[in-house]
Amino acid sequence: MTDPMHHPRFHQDPYPSYAAIRSTCPVQPVPGPDGKVSYLITGYAEAKEALADARLSKDSAAFFAGKASRRRLHPAVARTMLASDPPQHTRLRALVTKAFTRGAVAGLRPFIAQATDTLLDRWPVGEPFDLVDALAAPLPVLVICELLGVPENERADVRRWSAELFAAGEPDVIDSASHAVAAYMTDLIARKRMDPGDCLLDRLIRTRDANDGLLSEDELVSLAVLLLVAGHESTTDFLADAALALLRHPAALDRLCGEPHEVPAALDELLRFDSPVSTATFRFTTQAVTLGGTDLPAGVPVLVALGAANRDPRRFPHPDRLDLDRDAAAHLGFGHGIHRCVGAPLARAEAEIALQAVLTRFPAIRLAMAPERLEWKRTRLLRGPASLPILV
Fold first, then answer.
1. Taking the model in full, what pTM does it have?
2. Most buried of the four, 59, 67, 158, 249, by CB within 10 Å?
3. Which pLDDT band holds residue 41 (cuts at 50, 70, 90)?
4. What is the DSSP string of 275-286?
């Protein structure tokens, strides 16, 4: 079969391609650009099973060891907690989990609300502007930089490097950005050691310096980079996708404009309907595995299409319909198993606060161009519009 990403309209709307694949078999081999085979999972039950299967490793360093590559991705980006298995993953995740509990996130809500209001105060009335540039991109950057203690005058660089790390089809740009952001975090850690504070990064530094066996210096830098990048790129797409879904469904938009307190309950359906993380991060089989009736040999990459799984009609009837009354809590938008997104409570808080503020202050919000003309990010990992022109 062919890779669905080769379809000319895949990035604009991948769901018809995924549905066609799933109807044949929810787990199928697909050829990569190098001719080597990966396995694509498009079914909900199969995706959930794969995400929790310990025989599917995330240790990309082990998979690519010995394989020739012209890439020069910095190790702090290439070998993050996301690209590890237990016990290393368990140890690293435990160091950051407390920062993202509901209670910890509650302490950030006033800052999120204030940052949102400041951004919305700048929105021009009566002329088109880009919601991504005016809200969806800067808000998560502000929040994660506040959490990590990144100085305000350095946040623009952080945002630029993070965007460049997801520059699909531009490996040199990605590699260069990986070195820039790793160098920046190394420098920031050194400055914080000289002038410590009490943000999350300061606490990780103290943990590192007090117990050398718990966290190495390379792991400290890598954790900081991961939190910085993963902490806002996917949330940017979450906000943009959710806003677009509502703008394309006037009844749902009118309902939430009239009852903005319903936004928290609507977030699961919005995440299910258009998942910001379209495909889970890299996995490969460490031994022969059978998933969805398909035999996968050892040593092959596995692509778990979360967006496809969330549109599986066997789990969510009429999956292409946005239904705010649907019980969508079982969606896989944040993943599943031990690698489920640790920052999910923070992402939900940002989306809740931002969407409530937008719908309350700008109930006449509407698209400024036909949705079919929107440009989408050309990456398999994340799904979101490159820009979202609106009018308020």
1. 0.93
2. 158
3. very high
4. -SB-SPPPEEES
